[in-house]
Amino acid sequence: MSTISIIGSGGMATAIAGRVARSGQTVEVISRDNAKAQALADQLASGAITGKYGAAPAGDIVVLAVPYASAAAVAADFGKALDGKVIIDITNPVAPDLSGLLTPPGSSGAQETAKGIPAGAHVVKAFNTIFGHVLAKGGRLDAFIAADDAKAKVRVSTFLESLGLRPFDVGGLQMAQTLEALGLMMIGLAKNGAGTWDFALNVDLG
Amino acid sequence: MSTISIIGSGGMATAIAGRVARSGQTVEVISRDNAKAQALADQLASGAITGKYGAAPAGDIVVLAVPYASAAAVAADFGKALDGKVIIDITNPVAPDLSGLLTPPGSSGAQETAKGIPAGAHVVKAFNTIFGHVLAKGGRLDAFIAADDAKAKVRVSTFLESLGLRPFDVGGLQMAQTLEALGLMMIGLAKNGAGTWDFALNVDLG
After folding, report:
1. B15 is a domain residue
2. Is any Cβ of chain B less than 8 angstroms from the Cβ of A94?
3. B178 contacts on A by Cβ (under 8 Å)
4. CATH of residue B164
5. Count of domains in chain B?
6. In this structure, is residue B196 part of a structural domain?
7. Across chain A, how many H-helices and E-strands are there?
8. Which residues in chain A have their CB less than 8 angstroms from residue B177's CB?
């Protein structure tokens, strides 16, 4: 049985951990605050474990479920401990006033994360276009991914399918820029035209 | 009965004109090449008319259905003739190799268009997240819009509903950046994970 490591203990970490636990896979929760990691593991109540912050995660797939503002620092704290891992970047690098993105022009949160991990690790963008509470509710949602490494992308696709999601590859890691813009667009949609945060974006193949 | 003016005679102009004609509204086709405008009007065969390139369009809503590379020049050719109009910018400012967007950092095709029109005209971003051939097929597709002027946005929403589309406001005109990124994302999706160009992105309200 696979172990999936999740760094973080906030809303998205909890939503993803919940789906992983329900899929029958082992969740390893890792947080700078070990009490928060333990609380989330206890809440999952399915053999979830906690890992040591900064040490090598147990899973080959590591979900970096922390805010954009701290992602680089967290990656630095783990350093070479992430070597060989598939890192899932879920960040939505949105300005506090939701007016735009905080990333440097021509880059994305995922590309910035990729700069700070060992050469043997690969970043895959995923989960940022699904609201945490919608993810937690369940259902077969569409999940867009972007990555440069083909093998890492296949692994994450398989992982997403194991959670009951429908993965869609949108291209190389630079396409994370479009997915992060889509994350911002969904926030704008929630605040304006949709009138609710309870929605998902789906691909209608006709 | 409303008249909708469409500047352009390419694939998207044809797809939009077809839906307008089927809705029972009058289409005015305007092209730098009047023969092309006449050919599209004849093809519509529903009382469609042609307008003089550079003169004031007949419709209060003017769809600027030309490529991003020529949008600014076309707006300049019309100049004050566009005063008071609601201009729909449909551009996807995508690089020829589809690797990224051609717009200046922090801007969008729609915002660039807005710089070149009279102060009494308003730009609304729309249609760029629906492939032309999907739009032409019909069906109740979701149509995302962004604009600063509230009245112009309401008019375009009503117009989109008259075409059988479901409009969704994503915010101010700067949010056109997210819609244009979404256009690029859809191209990446078509080339990668979707394996087809026959799809639409829909909002699932659960």
Report:
1. yes
2. no
3. 181-182, 184-185, 188
4. 3.40.50.720
5. 1
6. no
7. 7, 9
8. 100, 181
Whether residue A41 is contained in a domain is answered as yes
Provide the pLDDT confidence category of residue A1 given band limits of 50, 70 and 90. low
Mean pLDDT, rounded, for B121-138: 97
Structure tokens at B148: 């600063």
Chain B contact set for A170 (CB, 8 A): 185, 188-189, 192-193
pLDDT (tens digit, 9 = 90+) per residue, B20-68?
999 999 999 999 999 999 999 999 978 899 999 999 999 999 999 999 9
Which of B108, B128, B168 is closest to B144 using CA atoms? B168
> pLDDT at residue B1 above 90?
no
Number of alpha carbons in the 13 Å side-chain half-sphere of residue B133: 5
Residues ≥6 apart with Cβ < 8 Å to A21? A27, A44, A45, A46, A48
**Domain limits for position B72:** 3-191
Helix (H) or strand (E) holding B86: strand B86-89
The rounded distance, in Å, linking the Cα atoms of A147 and A156 is 10
In a domain, A199, yes or no: no
pLDDT(A175) > 70:
yes
Does residue A169 belong to the interface with chain B, where contact is any CB pair within 8 Å? yes
**Whole-number percent of chain B with pLDDT over 90:** 96
Question: pLDDT tens, A22-71?
Answer: 999 999 999 999 999 999 999 997 889 999 999 999 999 999 999 999 99
Would you call B195 an interface residue with chain A, using a CB distance cutoff of 8 Å? Answer: no
Q: What is the CA angle A129-B16-B186, rounded to 5?
A: 25
Using the Cα atoms of residue A6, residue A11, residue A14 and residue A19 in order, give the sign of their dihedral: negative
pLDDT tens-digit series, residues A62-71: 999 999 999 9
Contact B148, B137 (CB under 8 A): no
Judge contact between B185 and A144, C-beta under 8 A: yes
Q: What is this model's ipTM? A: 0.95
Residue B167, CA distances (Å) to A58, A79, B140, B161, B171 in order: 46, 46, 10, 7, 12
Name the helix (H) or strand (E) containing B6.
strand B3-7
**Which residues, at least 6 apart from B203, have a Cβ–Cβ distance to it below 8 Å?**
A189, A194, A199, A200, A201, A202, B142, B166, B168
What's the pLDDT tens digit per position in B76-97? 999 999 999 999 999 999 999 8
**Termini Cα distance of chain B:** 36
Of residues A61, A66, A107, the one with CA closest to residue A88: A61
